[in-house]
């Protein structure tokens, strides 16, 4: 986190040079980093709750950096509603656990679970914690604010996607002993994680804007990370968390390079994945995963997770074919994709030998459900990849995010209304008569 904060902070200094709100940005940025560090080091319920609330308060100032942009105000407003609900659930989780254990210390909580096992208050605490994390991680159906904060400066997006949203994954790993005693909490995580991965995976393919596509990618990745934690694969979730943070920070800070990539793609012409590769990629991915595991017998995971990983990495083995392409190019692409799958599997296998301080507790009952969901997702993505024109309605719904956020926005504004009023804290670059109103609370 310190590395990401330093890199994003240096980038922000150049990106926002000359902006009148730069000092305000620096203060809020420092507030987010300080709160995140306190959260990561906290060993008590009260400190955790205060730090997580501090992250939300400081982040709101970053999301509303451009105060004259209505969609930025709306996104921050929706996030505030979700944060308050998550805070209430976290307080409930802390109260139930504290009353049962007699202490707010996480160490005392682990010792109590080891000595006495599951109890009704602790299981209820785990459910409240799981729901709070679902809300804070921007999973379906409360994901909309994460997409709409693209109105904020690019460094804010990098910080949010690389170091704030995935804090929930860290907390799930931290509270693994508590979640292990509550099957209901684990089923909640599996359901929300798998559902988010499924829906966001379709939406991501329909987006053209690089920042919006990265935002939907984060929603899908957070869903997959929550799924991993719900299935009890905490070592893989920890590795996923680190990799996602580094990847998303680099992707947002280098988003401008997408222009060059688009030009190169136009020059090469359209190329669709070969039908044979779409059909055989899962089997090929599974073969590579099993081969690497046989060569590196350092750790293992349940049989159904081999299938989940093979389906998740199968698109790397898709072979794009265009008119005039030589067979050598197809073989090159295939071997490169197989090399990536082998490398990812090797890293995931070696992660089991690292002293990460977490132990896997596989949730075998939910494993086949996750495998079936990933198989259905792959089938849908492969079909849309090959025959997009045959499913115009599905593509239209995917592009609209299945209209989930529209429903949530209407509901949120109906339950907690807001009004539009002029915001004169920072003048807009346009004439005063044509300024766009900002969103304020009633």
Automatic annotation (TrEMBL):
It holds the Pfam family Proton_antipo_M. Residues 42-263 form the NADH:quinone oxidoreductase/Mrp antiporter transmembrane domain. It is found in: Endomembrane system; Membrane. One of its GO terms (molecular function) is NADH dehydrogenase (ubiquinone) activity. Keywords: Membrane, Transmembrane, Transmembrane helix. One of its GO terms (biological process) is ATP synthesis coupled electron transport. It comes from the Bacteria. It is a multi-pass membrane protein. The keyword Transport does not apply. This is NADH-Ubiquinone/plastoquinone (Complex I), various chains family protein. It comes from Burkholderia thailandensis.
